[in-house]
Amino acid sequence: MAPSVAELKGDEATNPALTGKAKLSHPFYYPYFDVKEQFPPTQLFEHNDPGARADPAKTHLLTANTTTRDISPYIGTEITGVQISQLSKEGLDELALFAAERKVLLFRDQDFKDIGPERQIEIAKHFGPIQRHPTSGNVKGYPEFHVVYRDPEHDVFRDYRGRDRASGVNWHSDISYEKQPPSTTFFFILDQPGVGGDTLFLSQVEAYKRLSPEFQKRLEGLRAVHSAVQQAEFSERRGGPVRREPVETEHPLVRKHPVTGEKALYVNEGFTRRIVGFKKEESDLILNFLFNHIAKGADFQIRATYAPGTVVVWDNRVTAHSATVDFDNTILRHAVRLTPQAEVPIPA
């Protein structure tokens, strides 16, 4: 049996947290940055969504021992009584379908963080090839992991969004600049503040539905540019890695989910830069309206809370999310994301 991740030491020579103020429960996942690490350009691949194979009854996922609680009518379900690590292939297929239907799933009391990196990657790969992030901290020897980390000496995300902003909220869909952005995404907590540090999620399906039919028609068929350039330039300025050349990719403003058929907005303030074929003022007007519409949609948003053993699974194709940095930077927060990529977005 592989050792518990809590027992893996990682690279002590490059891990100041092992001797500093922050005491990590899982030092193996301390963020690793190697400026010499290089990745080739991402290649297109054929994607077959596991949710399309799933039994709609979800008998392998939602057993007699499983309890679910919907957080909102439109988005979010809390699940107890099932271990992701023990799901069969059929159960993982049903997980993909359930995530597509409910957008965000909060699994409680999971052993996922302690099953070892190989098994964690094996499970995530069921949903598609895992993106290797071009700039963020990963785990040495495991570039599939995207490490989210904040302690008194390290606050990269506040620097990225700008320290002069009144709010830290930054709605985005992960790595939407990729030619094949992600689908069923995994996020597991290692160390969390006692209060705060939640994640905001919203339904891009419901955001689209709230628009008038005439405006919906106007948006369908439009394409927007999603860019990794700002992210790469920030990493370069602070002496961090740029593991491959930043890409800019056109995606439909309204996309269709390949399994549920639902239409969803596919714009986000984090990476969407301009609408193709529009003049700057025209593009800014529409995008800023959509960004504002999304941000104000408290009635199609939820706040995902964390406890020891929480794993959040969401479908990045039909959601946007934001960190909530509402805790003092003297408090440690440490988490890991696995981000399987999916199909080229299907226009509505």
UniProtKB/TrEMBL annotation:
GO molecular function annotations of the record: 2-oxoglutarate-dependent dioxygenase activity; metal ion binding
The region annotated as signal peptide is none
Q: Which InterPro entries match?
A: AtsK-like, TauD-like_sf, TauD/TfdA-like
Query: At the top level of its lineage, which domain of life is listed?
Result: Eukaryota
> What SUPFAM superfamilies does the annotation carry?
Clavaminate synthase-like
Record-level GO cellular component terms: cytoplasm
Q: Which family does it belong to?
A: Belongs to the TfdA dioxygenase family.
Its name, as the record gives it, is: TauD/TfdA-like domain-containing protein
